Amino acid sequence: MYVGGANDKSPVMTDLSHIRNFSIIAHIDHGKSTLADRLIQFCGGLSSREMKEQVLDNMDIERERGITIKAQTVRLEYNAQNGEKYILNLMDTPGHVDFAYEVSRCLYACEGSILVVDASQGVEAQTLANVYQAIDNNHEIVPVLNKIDLPAAEPEQVRTQIEDVIGIDASGAISVSAKTGVGIEELLESIVNILPAPEGDVNAPLKALLVDSWYDTYLGVMVLVRIIDGTLKKGMRVKMMAADTEHLIDRVGVFEPKENLVGELGPGEVGFFTASIKEVSHTHVGDTITEFKNETKEALPGFKPVQSVVFCGLFPADAADFEVLRESMYKLRLNDASFEFETETSTALGYGFRCGFLGMLHLEIIQERLIREFDLDIITTSPSVIYKIHLNKGTVQEIHNPADMPDVVYIDHMEEPWIKATILVPDEYLGAVLKLCQEKRGEQVDLTYAGDRAMVVYRLPLNEVVYDFYDKLKSLSRGYASFDYQMDGYREGDLVKLSILVNAEPVDALSMMVHRSQAEYRGRALCERLKDLIPRMLFKIPIQAAIGGKVIARETISAMRKDVTAKCYGGDISRKRKLLEKQKKGKKKMRLYGKVEIPHEAFIAALKMGNDK
């Protein structure tokens, strides 16, 4: 028997039949985090003094925006009505489409899901996406109708909608109010009675799934694991199978939701450990952890590799901060497996990183976290997607930075990524939404009705969606439309590289890939904005937008004028003319050798403008 420290609990091995692992899944704002609060409160995880709203959302940015970004795990003890004590491992997941990778990881580590549907809003686009992921993971699903205390709640209508749209039995759906606590005990009983217990062999060699990891300033890398077989103990030497590294475990614990140290974790349990891991590269999400010299025969399949859909460059405003930015990004990558990056250089911005994201919100969050958590001042270039360029010699080249595009004479044709979007929108806003999709070069696939709401399925080019589609959709529908998408392959498109030239010098950071039909509009708008942003000099500065060698838009910043004839009083006109000719030659020479420095603020403002279509 293990004898722990003062804070350690004795390792009482829980019977597998008394463990339940489940995720809470739902559309954005349907009440997942609030429901998690009530479950924690009911099971006594925190006292009423310690409780606060969205207690599992521990980042400031999550609280300010009112969204969950990181999935969080908590272990609860529940005394059921049959007199038995159960261990509940709850995983609260994000709702936004950009954080779908967090959801998929949690679902892989669980056996069941609680499907939360807002009783006043009904089934939304992300509800569908998440429930299909749960079904793919062979989950038992418990449908829950939340917000039944609202005057607009229509539980019976939503029950029918769940059955019609999703296709699962909702006759036993539990009506709850996560705000007031109504129906929470009934939900807990359903979790115990409906969801399956995990399977595992306590006597087999250790096999654990690395679910998540994050960096702690004092303890190094902390690792969240789900034990499949065997036991994980303090003092054990373990091996990370994918990274092929060994580590000695010095702390094992669970979140209740406060950190609580335990002696060991058995099959079916979810907890964390630290092992003085200093290198962030040693932990790969989805890796299999096993005991050193008593390895499991077969590693777990792990998670599907993440597919970034939006790319942009991140550069330090001060070139001296490059190494700090690199270290910060490695630490963020540890905490967010869907974030990827590689080093790149730009003539305008110096050394930086080309980063891949799952969407524009993901990009915003990473940018915000770098500024807040690591106190960095960064510049973000214009977002782009991966294009496939088919060359004349038969090879295919993938590019996500317009600066890497080969000369047009070598290109046979180009392909851009398309998505299949599902939009749920009230009937009164349907016309405006269809018009928006058409403007974005969309193709309608399907249009059906679920009650008084239309479900539209459209194929759209991803390039058009990453900029402002989501914002426009929300404003056109007054916030009522919901949107979810999945990748739908590549198609040939009439794409061109729009280059921006300042004083005849191309500015790589401002170049972008656009459809030929929109190139002139984008180029003209960008030139107009840059004219206001670049400071005047002693010579004229032409700003041009060009496709290849053809200029399609131009603005000119007029020169600052010095009155060289001010001291000429009277006399022959030829004296004044001579001075003006001399000035003219000087300005011409200055324009040849003069270098236009575009201020960082101008870059940022111009790149933001690239999104204001």
Report on this model:
The chain has 613 residues and is α+β, with helices and mostly antiparallel strands. The protein folds into 5 domains: 16-194, Rossmann fold (3-Layer(aba) Sandwich); 207-291, Translation factors (Elongation Factor Tu (Ef-tu), domain 3, Beta Barrel); 310-380, Alpha-Beta Plaits (2-Layer Sandwich), CATH 3.30.70; 387-493, Alpha-Beta Plaits (2-Layer Sandwich), CATH 3.30.70.240; 498-609, Elongation factor 4, C-terminal domain (Alpha-Beta Plaits, 2-Layer Sandwich), CATH 3.30.70.2570. The protein is built from 13 helices and 31 strands. The strands form 6 sheets. Strands 11-10-16-7-8-15-12-13 form an 8-stranded antiparallel sheet, with helices on one face. Strands 2-3-1-4-5-6 form a 6-stranded mixed sheet, sandwiched between helices. Strands 21, 22, 23, 24, 25 and 26 form a 6-stranded antiparallel sheet that branches. A hairpin with a 2-residue loop joins strand 27 (495-502) and strand 28 (505-506). Helix 7 packs across helix 8 (360-374). The chain is globular, with a radius of gyration of 29 Å. The N and C termini lie far apart (66 Å). The model is unreliable at 1-12 and 609-613 (pLDDT under 50).
